[in-house]
Each structure stands twice: as C-alpha cells, then as structure tokens.
Amino acid sequence: xxxxxxxSGSSTSPPRVALFVTCLVDLFRPSVGFAAIKLLEDAGxxxxxxxxxxxxxxxxxNSGDTEAARRIAKQVIETFCEFDYVVGPSGSCMSMxxxxxxxxxxxxxxxxxxxDSLSQRSYELMSFLSDVLHVRVEGISYAGTVxxxxxxxxxxxLGIKAQxxxxxxxxxxxxxxxxxxxxxCCGFGGTFxxxxxxxxxxxxxxxxxxxxxxxxxxxxxxxxxxxxNIAGRLKRLGKTTRxxxxxEVLAGMAKGxxxxxxxxx
Length: 265
What we know:
Layout: E1 16-19, H1 23-28, H2 30-42, E2 46-48, H3 58-62, H4 66-79, E3 85-88, H5 91-104, H6 112-121, E4 122-124, H7 125-132, E5 141-149, H8 152-157, H9 162-168, E6 172-177, H10 192-195, H11 197-214, E7 218-221, H12 224-236, E8 242-245, H13 246-250
Parallel strand pairs: 1-2, 1-3, 3-4, 5-6, 5-7, 7-8
C-alpha cells in the first residue's frame, strides 16, 4: 500500500492511531482486526490496540437503555482520548462514536466537548484509508468475482460507498459486480434479527438471491455483523459463495477460510 504524501503545513510525524476492534471482530473474526492493523501500518500509521476498550454501547442504546450507553460511552472516550485518530473496521460501531456519542452527551457539561472531540477523530476503516490517508493498494491480488455489500450504518450514517470500491479497484484479479437492490438491508440490524427473526430471514434470503443473480463467487463488506448474517444464510442454503471482510482482501489475508467456513485440517 502506498503511503500518502504529507499535506502542506502538516506534521511529518506518523499519525498515532488506536484500533477500535469491535466486539464481533474480537469474538468471531480476529483476522479482520489483524488485517486492519496491517493496512494502517502499511499506510504509515503507528497503531495501538488499547486493552481497556469495551463495546461501543450500541446494543444498549438501540434497546432503550440510554443510561448504560452513556456510561459505556464515557469509558470509551476516556480510553481513546490521547490518540490522533480512532479507527474501526465497522461502520456500525464507528457511527456510534461519530454520531451518537455527541447526541447522548450534549447536555453533560463535563463530557460534551470530549464526545465531540472523539467524534471528530473517529473513522470507519475504509473511509480513513480513502478519505484521510488517500492511500492506494499495491501488490495485492484476489482471483474472484466479487459482490460488495453496503452496510446500512456505513452507507446511510457515514456516507461510505465509493471508498471501498475505489480501494478494491486496485486489487489485481478482482472483478467487482454490483448487486440488485444493493442499498437494501441484509436483515441483520444488530438486535433486529433477534427481535424479528422471520422478517430478518426474508431480508437476508432476498440478499442471497441477489448475490446469486450477480454471478459473484465472493461477497465482501465492511461490517462483520452483516457478513456473519449473509454467510450464515448462504451456508444454510448450501451455497458455496465465499464471504470476507474488505480489510482481509485489501491486506492480502483472504487466503484462508472465509467467514462461516471451517478451518482446514
């Protein structure tokens, strides 16, 4: 990956970046976190992974437990206060830091300014690589026909659509195909899939149908929740379509089992 040129008047010291790992990456797909670190380091960043980090608080917030979400937000703000940037491989979690923390804490004099500061320094990984660092991927290949899934939070809340496609366009051998109804939710929605399982199954089944129609042999996206949901439905329907996080492909780390695939013995 090529490193960005310093902008006029900017410091030449490398940015100090904290990786917000996310709960799903930590518990289900740590390789996404390692891929994110590789991408950031290859782009010239100094990357740290604070051990004190916790959930962003979105499950509590979306379930109406605003007080618990505020307590979690304060711990997150405290943990990441000293870094130049906070970057996470999830539009869902990073929209919480960027958009919801300032709203939750706007009436708290002791925390409002700190929430705003964190918001301004927090980015989803694809957006950070493309919009802030302006990097281009070099020396990475993936032999496959790929459909990209846009997650709702990244797309609607953070405006992430062109960035991952631009980055993936530099991957040798990768053919990108757009999905019909690409901007329609896959049915995961965090707690939505638990509260409304029948609706969720219909939505992800429709998404799988559109993947089939695209002729893609691989699905790539930027949010692990969506990808776990899609991979699970593909597997239950007996499909062979592979699923990877965009970070894994861009980092050249999509050579092992895809999401939902068993480790080879």
